[in-house]
Amino acid sequence: MGLLYGLIAAGLALIFGLMDVVNFAHGEFLMIAMYATFFLFAFFAIDPLLAAPLVAAALFVFGAVVYLLIVRFAMRAKANAGMVQIFSTFGLAIVMRGLAQFFFTPDYRSVTNSWVGGKTISIAGIYLPEPQLIGALVAIVAFVALYFFINRTDFGRALEATREDAGAVALVGIDKNRVFALGWGLGAALVGLAGAIMAIFFYVYPDVGASFALIAYVTVALGGFGSVFGAFAAGILVGLVEATTALILPPSLKSVGIYAVYLLVVFIRPRGLFGSM
Amino acid sequence: MDTQFAQRRRRDLIVALCLAVIAALAPLFVKDVYVQNIMVLTLMYAALSQSWNILSGYCGQISLGHALYFGLGAYTTALLFTKFGVLPWFGMLAGGAISAVIAMALGYLCFRLRGHYFVIATIVIAEIALLLFQNWDWAGAALGIDIPMRGDSWLKFQFARSKLPYLYFALTLACIAWLVTWWLEDSKWGYWWRAVKDNPDAAESLGVVVFNSKMGAAAVSAFLVAIGGSFYAQFVSYIDPESVMGFQFSLLMALPAVLGGIGTLWGPALGAVILIPLTELTRSYVGGSGRGVDLIVYGALIVAISLALPKGLVSVFSWRRGAAR
Amino acid sequence: MTISRRNVLLGASAAALVPMMARAQTSEVVIGVLYPFSGASAQMGVDAQKAYETALDIINKKYDFDLPLAKDEGLPGLGGAKIRLVYADHQGDPQKGRAEAERLITQEKVCAIVGTYQSAVAVTVSQTCERYQIPFLSADNSSPSLHTRGLKFFFRAAPHDEMFSKGMFDFFDAMKKKGTKIDTLALFHEDTIFGTDSANAQTKLAKERGYKIVADIKYRANSPSLSAEVQQLKAANADVLMPSSYTTDGILLIKTMSELGYKPSAIVAQAAGFSEKALYDAVGDKLNGVITRGSFSLDLAAKRPMVGKINDMFKEKSGKDLNDNTSREFMALIVIADAINRAKSTDGEKIREALTKTDIPAEQTIMPWKRVKFDETGQNNDADPVLLQYIGGKFVTVFPAQAAVAEAVWPMK
């Protein structure tokens, strides 16, 4: 589970951390991805695992469009840029929920059977559900790819540089909007991957994103903004903390453990575990 | 410059007085309970948002966890009344005091955090409190607290049908919150905060004094919000953790200020006057469809306003532009 | 002149506030219907709306059913007046429920309110109705704390969680007599008013009747993950697992249980999610043999053909069979309309009086109840719950004996 939190958080980390923009509609991105997976399954009988790349691609486009239509302007705001970002994306989240309810009805849906759904591998008495296992594998691959992408490719360096100093990169001929639109697309695509895998073992309805959004924010902040590796590590930590808290306290309090760890970490290290900003 | 400033402040005070009188007289003409209900909520959110604005707007410490103080106020009043028979008026003050102390303790820990780290810390703290109350059996846990109704009484601050006492209380609270803000704008705290916001380096040189003034702002802000929470408990006469401490409350408190103009004197009130009736009316007249149309309208409006007017709606009023800095 | 501009603005917003004119009511009776139509439980509101429309159709038009008011057009007691429903959205928030109830009463001039799905909202709505002396008929709130608050205008035709839970324990006692081993129970409930009330009732009954609760797991509603919870359930390995969950967590619970290889010998659920079609669409294959309490059973159609016909009418509107919730909502409107008809008035106090005299025999309902008759707290104590078992893709009534059409399959497969 931790790795999946990590995967959801990774997309957020990319948007949130690398571009220093808050996206309060992140949970709704996840919701859209899960719906997309569900409909591919329901109408075309495409297994969620096959659908994952398709959904990721669709979300890539979606993320880029959202950037170009909304976030671009939010970032340009002269005053209160932080608040404008928070509330324009928050408004977007509400619109997306409303639209989902309008078009998909508020009914609960889920993917009934897939290649891996409900199957379990048991090793020495420890049960490892296949969907989560695959989720973990995808998460690891995605993280490694992302890490290299950001640290080893021109685009990654361009992204970093653009955040640092948009004016200077414009001088060397990098279009800020293009770079950021790609960044948003990439972030959304990661959420798309996560959503496709989530849909195997989770239900979908218009408000589903809310359950995950807060955990994702906390995970990103815990890992430290600007650090993809941080989000990855924090995701694992969050999963572990959640499981341990549920053993000590009543399970309904298990999130308290996650929140407490976050507070503890930032009180000691105000920039999260691996944060650079 | 100075005289201009003094003039502006005098004018603000006169305008506020006029508005307060209009609001106080309005119930003479508006008898409909539903509309009065919207007016009560509007005034309450104006007061809450104004209080939130003190810490988040003027001090720049953006808190999305003010539901904590709101809930503490509501719970203190309701628990003291139902368990110990303490009248809500005292409960209100107790709730305010508790919230102010907690706000300072949390401020001491959190003010070192910057930007998103601070915002998330405030969300998370409120969320922890919500979970604790949800599991605290003595305080009713998820069942909440039902405040028994024993007929109209000013002493117990409960009225079966009449909205007027609530309306005047909410109006008073909104006026107090406004006056505190008005007074702070011209105080030395106000100057420090403006200096710090404009120039973070100035923060270093002012150091300790600014830190203390922020603690003061947190306490005042939490105190007023807690009074609002106490009021809400009496107004609805039933509270449960989700409905007074939920994250949506933190957002609802911040929204009017953000839409109206964060860190401005008039922003929160203006935002509340537009936002709250809109929310209520869309829910009442478009919401029954089950298709989320009300959400689409509401959300789109937030996106549009926050993008088009980053300084908030107050910036539309050209004569106020000097003040909306 | 700045002030005058401000005044113009104020004037404009005041104009926007002017309420819509309350529609004149001549030959119609208006009833308010309060449900969540947006937010996490929006689907419940949408389904409820279909159930009310079905009941409305039967009341306002002529049908050959042995239900109160079915054979007439409208309400004969009020000169054939038709009923009109006004729907309002409370979004699951007690404050909004209160405000909407007030609006329905003062603006829409409703003479009664039915609702509300969430029990927390029912608390404030019933209070408001009490203040305005308008009857509130709780259709589908099952919290037992609702009718013990001394409200005069509160009525509930359906069972509450204590009655439901009692039914379950009666069933356990009966099974034990037949030699089935039932000693230990595991409770699994959400941290809301519904989950807490249900668990409290079950804990009390278990103590009284000598069952051991080996796990009492309270979880956060709409949790992103339930693995830790399920692991504890698995470790406790009770004879019966008793979940009180809504649809979302119900689906996740069953999926997680199958992933972690936990298969209890029986699941006896406090309906809610476990009577929703969405849950069985999602994980029905893993639920063969699950038992849920209910206030409705399609098996009744064999004895009372109108049940089947009404179900068809509902299905045409919603694409679903009537279930625990929608059947109660359907009955609620019939019960309140019957009272208004007998009161021959839309006055709240007169309708209240008529409600206290309500006595609808079992045959004139679509429910497995003995009758509809309210005690002094407004509760119908003759509403017997049934236990249904999900076998081969449909529900079969297994308890109590007089309603059962089959023996319970135990342990579940």
Description of the molecule:
The complex is a heterotrimer of chains A (277), B (325) and C (413). With 277 residues, chain A is mostly helical. Chain A has a single domain, classed as ABC transporter involved in vitamin B12 uptake, BtuC. In chain A, 75% of the residues lie in helices and 3% in strands. Chain A has eleven helices and two strands. Chain A has a two-stranded antiparallel sheet with strand order 1-2. Chain B is mainly alpha-helical and 325 residues long. Chain B has one domain. Helix content of chain B is 74%, strand content 1%. Chain B has twelve helices and two strands; from the N terminus they run αααααβαααβαααα. In chain B, strands 1-2 form a two-stranded antiparallel ribbon. The radius of gyration of chain B is 20 Å and the shape is globular. Chain C has helices at 2-17, 42-60, 94-106, 119-132, 161-177, 193-209, 227-236, 247-259, 277-283, 300-303, 305-318, 324-343, 348-356, and strands at residues 28-35, 82-89, 112-115, 136-138, 154-156, 184-190, 212-219, 240-244, 268-269, 291-294, 360-361, 371-372, 386-391, 394-399. In chain C, α9 links the parallel β9 (268-269) and β10. The longest helix of chain C has 20 residues, at 324-343. Classes of the chains: A mainly alpha (277), B mainly alpha (325), C alpha/beta (413). Chains in contact: A-B, A-C, B-C. Chains B and C meet through α1, α2, β2 and α11 of B and α1, α2, β2, α3 and α4 of C.
Entry keywords:
heterotrimer; A: 277 residues; ABC transporter involved in vitamin B12 uptake, BtuC; two-stranded antiparallel ribbon; 11 helices; C: 413 residues; alpha/beta; 5-stranded parallel beta sheet; 4-stranded mixed beta sheet; 13 helices; 16% strand; disordered N terminus
Give the SSE layout.
The complex is a heterotrimer of chains A (277), B (325) and C (413).
Chain A lengths: L1 H18 L6 H19 L3 H29 L4 H24 L15 E4 L2 E4 H23 L1 H11 L1 H6 L4 H26 L6 H16 L4 H21 L5 H15 L9
Antiparallel strand pairs in A: 1-2
Helix pairs in contact in A: 1-5, 1-8, 1-9, 1-10, 2-3, 2-4, 2-8, 2-9, 3-4, 3-8, 5-6, 5-8, 6-8, 9-10, 9-11, 10-11
Chain B lengths: L1 H28 L3 H26 L8 H18 L3 H23 L4 H20 L10 E2 L17 H22 L2 H11 L1 H37 L1 E2 L1 H5 L1 H14 L6 H20 L6 H16 L17
Antiparallel strand pairs in B: 1-2
Helix pairs in contact in B: 1-6, 2-6, 2-8, 2-10, 2-11, 3-4, 3-5, 3-8, 4-8, 6-8, 7-8, 10-11, 11-12
Chain C lengths: L1 H16 L10 E8 L6 H19 L21 E8 L4 H13 L5 E4 L3 H14 L3 E3 L15 E3 L4 H17 L6 E7 L2 H17 L2 E8 L7 H10 L3 E5 L2 H13 L8 E2 L7 H7 L7 E4 L5 H4 L1 H14 L5 H20 L4 H9 L3 E2 L9 E2 L13 E6 L2 E6 L14
Parallel strand pairs in C: 1-2, 1-3, 3-4, 4-5, 6-7, 6-8, 9-10
Antiparallel strand pairs in C: 10-13, 11-12, 13-14
